Amino acid sequence: MIYETRVYRCMPGRLPALLKRFETITLKLWDKHGIRQAGFFTTLVGESNQDLTYLLAWESLAEREKKWTAFTTDPEWIAARAKTEEDGQIVLTIENQLLVPTSFSAVK
């Protein structure tokens, strides 16, 4: 397995809009494209309380490329994203890493 960590830093005050978008739009589209989430987290203590961190689980880099590309180019996603940003930009920056579990990891 490959795990992808994604951290979205929101524009000030826009984290609730991002959470709503994931809950009501994004997750349904991920289901459509077979994208599996492994967890979502907001920051309790850390650099910014305007961050959303989540993990995705992939069988391979090829699976990630195929499914992520299909999602990001889906006309339904493009339209929904634009609609949710009519009141302004939501995400300031996105950081991501692709991780491979160690032999002693509880998560494989």
From TrEMBL:
It comes from the Bacteria. SUPFAM superfamilies: Dimeric alpha+beta barrel (SSF54909). It holds the Pfam family NIPSNAP. Coiled coil: none annotated. Residues 3-105 form the NIPSNAP domain. InterPro entries: Dimeric_a/b-barrel (IPR011008), NIPSNAP (IPR012577). This is NIPSNAP protein. It comes from Bradyrhizobium macuxiense. The lineage of its organism: Bacteria, Pseudomonadati, Pseudomonadota, Alphaproteobacteria, Hyphomicrobiales.
